[in-house]
Design goal:
Number of domains: 2
Structural class: mainly alpha
Shape: flat
Strand content: under 5%
Order of helices and strands: HHHHEEHHH
Distance between the termini: 50 Å
Number of strands: 2
Radius of gyration: 19 Å
Helix content: 55-70%
Number of helices: 7
């Protein structure tokens, strides 16, 4: 357990037996695409990634993109007041390098580099006031 007082829970996942039953049923019927899409809809990232990796590169990229969009774009914080509720922090909270790395790992190449360049421009403009930045 972390002793850092600034550490906070960013995500909590609950897996229901019925969701696993549905994935199992779809897979037993040979419906891998339906199974990974169902897992994706239910935010069962590990299940979606494993199944998608057996389909094709596009399915894998889709799962990684959804994971990045859901888990890293808005730094969600689990709200202790109830299941499924989340507080959201403003975008750009320091996870951009992780987003780029995951995008590169999923084979998105140039799109990831473009994201990093945009992020660097925004970061630089926040550090250097506009008056000093203009030439």
């Amino acid at each position: 357990m972390s002793t850092n007082p600034h550490d906070r829970v960013l995500s909590v996942q609950t897996v229901k037996a019925s969701a696993l039953d549905k994935i199992q049923e779809l897979l037993s019927q040979g419906e891998r695409k339906a199974a990974y899409r169902y897992a994706l809809d239910e935010r069962l990232w590990a299940h979606a990634m494993i199944i998608a990796s057996s389909i094709d590169k596009e399915a894998w990229k889709e799962v990684v993109n959804e994971f990045i969009r859901s888990e890293l774009n808005s730094q969600s914080v689990a709200d202790a007041t109830g299941p499924g509720r989340r507080d959201t922090m403003p975008p750009g909270t320091g996870r951009e390098p992780l987003k780029v790395a995951y995008s590169l790992y999923s084979g998105q190449g140039a799109a990831s580099s473009t994201c990093m360049v945009k992020m660097l421009r925004v970061s630089y403009s926040l550090i250097v006031p506009c008056k000093q930045y203009k030439r």
